[in-house]
Amino acid sequence: GATVGTYESENENAKNSLKSQAVIGGDATNYILNGGFETLSGWLLSNSYVSYDLSETLPDRIKFNLPALNSSNIYQYVNIPNGEYSLSLNCSVDSITGGYIILQAQSVDDSSHSYIKQVDLGTVGANGNFDITPVLTFQANNPYDDAEHFKISILIYAGTDNNAIAYIDDVSLQRTPSAR
């Protein structure tokens, strides 16, 4: 994206003294480590129903292969400055009946700060495929510090399909720009 800025002084090389700045189409900070799954670094897996296989046709993503009535999740811990955030991802489903995905942000500092977004995945036949991009918005607000620790979890539930398959990629946790 393009970035434009004006400086406090005549020295345009003093980038830490910006007076104003505008970014168009730029990338915001992603507080998730390795949200594109180039490796598993940063992620913890709940059980063997979750796999990461570089030999697949589309490697850089995580695969959930679940028997009926089972679930699995991946998660990581983040420390984020106080503010409003959006957690999003891409989910591709090959086969599922009555399943769902849950995005959760659970504060480690204050158990009353728990945010959940559940999206029903409906019914997709064995040869079907669809993509969704669920978004969870939540607030980090630690009154004792300028940041709050969260456990960020993504759970897939298989429903009644005996071989439910879903893929997760492009997990992003970004701070929502504050209104001015």
Number of strands: 12
Sheet bearing the most strands, described? 10 strands, antiparallel
SSE series:
EEEEEEEEEEEE
Distance between the termini: 22 Å
The amount of helix comes to under 10%
Number of helices: 0
Helix/strand/pairing category? mainly beta
Mean pLDDT: 78
Alpha carbon gyration radius: 19 Å
Beta-strand content estimate: over 45%
Provide the low-confidence segments as ranges: 1-25
What's the shape? globular
Protein architecture, described:
This protein has 180 residues and is mostly beta strands. The chain contains no helices and twelve strands. Strands 3, 4, 5, 6, 7, 8, 9, 10, 11 and 12 form a ten-stranded antiparallel sheet that branches. Strands 1-2 form a two-stranded antiparallel ribbon. A hairpin with a 6-residue loop joins strand 7 and strand 8. The N terminus is likely disordered.
Identify the notable features of this structure and list them briefly.
180 residues, globular, ten-stranded antiparallel β-sheet, two-stranded antiparallel ribbon, single chain, mainly beta, 56% strand
Summarize this structure briefly.
The chain is about 0% helix and about 55% strand. It has strands at about 1-5, 20-25, 45, 50, 60-65, 70-80, 85-105, 115-125, 130, 135-140, 145-155, 165-175. Strands 3, 4, 5, 6, 7, 8, 9, 10, 11 and 12 form a 10-stranded antiparallel β-sheet that branches.
Helices and strands, with pairings:
Layout lengths: L1 E6 L10 E7 L19 E2 L4 E2 L10 E5 L4 E11 L1 E25 L6 E11 L5 E3 L2 E6 L6 E11 L6 E12 L5
Antiparallel strand pairs: 1-2, 3-6, 4-5, 5-12, 6-11, 7-8, 7-9, 7-10, 7-11, 7-12
